[in-house]
Specification:
Elements lengths: L1 H5 L3 H136 L3 H17 L1
């Protein structure tokens, strides 16, 4: 450092300082403004990018909120549709049960009526057969009774005796 002070030249110092000041003035006039403009432009671009990112973030939040709302509405609609489907199913099952009961009652009533009519027909047929058999038996008995003269006389007297009593 002492060596530098010993070799110090005022003229060299003056010209070096003058060139340095001139260089600063030239840089200020020609380079400083474009550099500051570029820095300001870059700063503005960064601000715009941050604002755009913030706006995109807000828009994304709005979209997510809308998606959640739409999803919730879809779930509610699905639940309503399932509830309605269950109610329709229960109604159809209930109607089918009622219809089956009504049809069953009709079939039972028809069967009872059919059984009753067949029973009546069977009883009538049985009465007809009994009466036919009774007549056949009576006819055979009368033939046997009336085959001899003494039996005929005895029967007539018995009938006359029964007639007088009445």
């Amino acid at each position: 450092m002492e060596k530098l002070l010993e070799q110090f030249s005022l003229g060299l110092f003056f010209w070096s300082a003058l060139i340095f000041v001139g260089l600063i003035l030239l840089l200020k006039k020609f380079a400083w403004k474009p550099i500051l403009d570029a820095i300001n432009e870059r700063e503005e671009g960064i601000k715009n990018a941050l604002l755009s990112a913030e706006n995109a973030k807000k828009e994304m939040q709005n979209l997510q909120a809308d998606n959640q709302r739409i999803l919730q509405e879809a779930r509610m609609e699905r639940d309503a549709m399932l509830k309605e489907a269950r109610e329709i199913k229960e109604k159809i099952v209930s109607e089918a049960k009622n219809e089956a009961q009504v049809q069953g009652q009709k079939i039972i009533e028809q069967a009872k009526a059919s059984i009753e009519s067949e029973k009546s027909a069977a009883i009538a047929e049985l009465k007809l057969q009994v009466s036919s058999l009774s007549l056949d038996i009576a006819e055979k008995l009368l033939k046997d009774e009336l085959s001899n003269k003494a039996a005929q006389t005895k029967l007539v007297e018995k009938m006359l005796g029964d007639a007088k009593l009445n």
